[in-house]
Specification:
Number of helices: 5
Radius of gyration: 26 Å
Shape: flat
Strand content: under 5%
Oligomer: single chain
Structural class: mainly alpha
Low-confidence stretches: none
Mean pLDDT: 79
Order of helices and strands: HHHHH
Largest sheet: none
Distance between the termini: 17 Å
Length: about 140
């Protein structure tokens, strides 16, 4: 059991040395993913999940006037304002493009398909150049 783990660790270290760029990209992707997940959870936890810092929060009441007014947390108002500004900024680059435009949707699908095909092509091309017995010996 320990021999298998040691062999796996040696293989992992050897793979990282040969594909250092791939290792850097993988570590950066994990770092960004974990950081984004932590930031989003912290925001949701602070705004929605935590109870209010009062002794009996279930006894709180909201007093409003008869006017239809939306009362929200100031953080959500800032987020909405930022989202609206970002939407206006991005839409300025997309002059004349509608959300359900079939040409835009087809081009987006084509670009995503091309990126996926290219991402799969490079490892497949590299693997096809290896001699099978050499690849099996390295494992």
């Amino acid at each position: 059991m320990l021999d298998a783990i040691a062999q796996d660790l040696r293989y992992a270290i050897r793979s990282v040395r040969t594909n250092s760029a791939l290792a850097v990209v993988a570590v950066l992707s994990l770092t960004l993913g974990i950081g984004a997940n932590t930031a989003i959870f912290s925001l949701i936890n602070a705004v929605m999940l935590r109870t209010l810092p009062v002794s009996h929060p279930e006894e709180l009441l909201q007093v409003t006037a008869d006017m239809p007014q939306i009362s929200t947390n100031p953080i959500w108002q800032q987020i909405r304002a930022l989202a609206a500004a970002t939407t206006r900024f991005v839409s300025s680059f997309l002059y004349g493009v509608k959300p359900n435009d079939p040409v835009t949707l087809a081009l987006a699908a084509l670009v995503l398909t091309a990126v996926a095909a290219f991402a799969g092509y490079l490892p497949a091309r590299r693997a096809s150049r290896l001699e099978p017995m050499t690849a099996l010996r390295e494992v």
